[in-house]
Amino acid sequence: MEQPTSATSATSSSHPTPAGCGEAPRSNEAVESCVGVVIAVPEPLAAELEQWRASFGDPMGALIPAHITLVTTTPATDWDATIAHVRQVARSQKPFTVTLRSTGTFRPVSPVVFLKLEAGFDDCVELHTKLQRGPLERSLEFPFHPHVTVAHDVSSAGMDWAEGQLRGFEASFMVRTMGLYEHDSCGVWRLREELSFGQDHYQGNHPGRR
User: Fold this and answer.
1) For the whole model, what pTM was predicted?
2) The CATH number of the domain where 166 resides is what?
3) Per-residue pLDDT of the chain in tens (210 residues, 90 and over written 9)
4) 8, 44, 87, 124: which has the fewest C-beta neighbours closer than 10 Å?
5) 3-state secondary structure the chain
């Protein structure tokens, strides 16, 4: 979940992890884990963006699916309170359209080139604001800026190429869900629940609590 503040230290994965890694905390257990919430870019657009990212020399292109981060790595000690909070935000959210158009960069603060949100920017900011409250409240070093990363921590030439190659890029998609992830003890982002907007979410639907 790349942000302008730091380099990515883990990959996204929906695959099982080795025994003993990434166990979900039991109810009310005061074990700190890290939470992330993202909007996944749908296929086939995601595959196209992953190919572009790899072409710019970014090794994470094949490991991190294209996405928009709503909540970056945030410590959480109460998983039940966290998921209840995220479910409530999802329940009150309506689907919206995202349009990606042209490129931007966080350089020189951070070596990132990204696709800009022409439509859906304000929706993502509003979602982020709602999510980053209660059990997920924290101070951020920089203002939240929704985006889709296409090059991260590659050479200056690779950054320049990415920024130029995708300057004329444009694509739109509907956002109807967001994914709640946990950063497990093995350093892997694991999807705990995909939450549909405007729907009730029950405890039995939570894949991380069996």
Assistant:
1) 0.80
2) 3.90.1140.10
3) 554 333 233 333 332 222 222 334 444 444 468 999 999 999 999 999 999 999 999 988 888 899 999 999 898 888 899 999 999 999 999 999 999 999 999 998 899 999 999 999 999 999 999 999 999 988 887 889 999 999 998 999 999 999 999 999 999 999 999 999 998 777 788 999 999 999 886 543 444 433
4) 44
5) CCECCECCCCCEECCCCCCCCCCCCCCCCCCCEEEEEEEECCCCHHHHHHHHHHHCCCHHHHCCCCEEEEEEEEEECCHHHHHHHHHHHHHHCCCEEEEEEEEEECCCCCCEEEEEEEECHHHHHHHHHHHCCHHHCCCCCCCCCCCEEEEECCCHHHHHHHHHHCCCCEEEEEECEEEEEEECCCCCEEEEEEEECCCCCCHHHCCCCC
